[in-house]
Amino acid sequence: MSVLKNDRLLRILNHLPVDRVPVWIMRQAGRTDPQYCQLRKNDGRALEKLFADPEIAIKISLLPKRLGVDAIIMFQDILTPLTPMGAGFHFDPGPVLERPVRTMAQVKALRAVDPE
């Protein structure tokens, strides 16, 4: 097991002293980060495919590390759980459900997400 080199965020969340206020940045990288834009261009896959690929999601999640932040946010989308629930989607350019959920029967047919 590795030892954390930067535990500022964890320490402050546990009400422990820190040497400075932790920095945690939430961003939409696609609009501002040249490294993210280049990665997307080189990869060529649709955005929803990147969310589903752990290796690329990790690479994208770690891009802000060069800024000296104290925590990162896993590269995902709030809609990511829809696919395992049986409500696939794609971006065109915004999210589009493959089969829109419009009735209570369709809601009841959705599967519960198992995080394991």
TrEMBL record:
Listed GO CC annotations: cytosol
GO annotation, biological process: heme biosynthetic process
Origin superkingdom: Bacteria
A matching Pfam family: URO-D
Any one Gene Ontology molecular-function term assigned to this protein's record: uroporphyrinogen decarboxylase activity
Ranges where the Uroporphyrinogen decarboxylase (URO-D) domain occurs: 22-31
Protein name, as recorded: Uroporphyrinogen decarboxylase
Origin species: SAR324 cluster bacterium
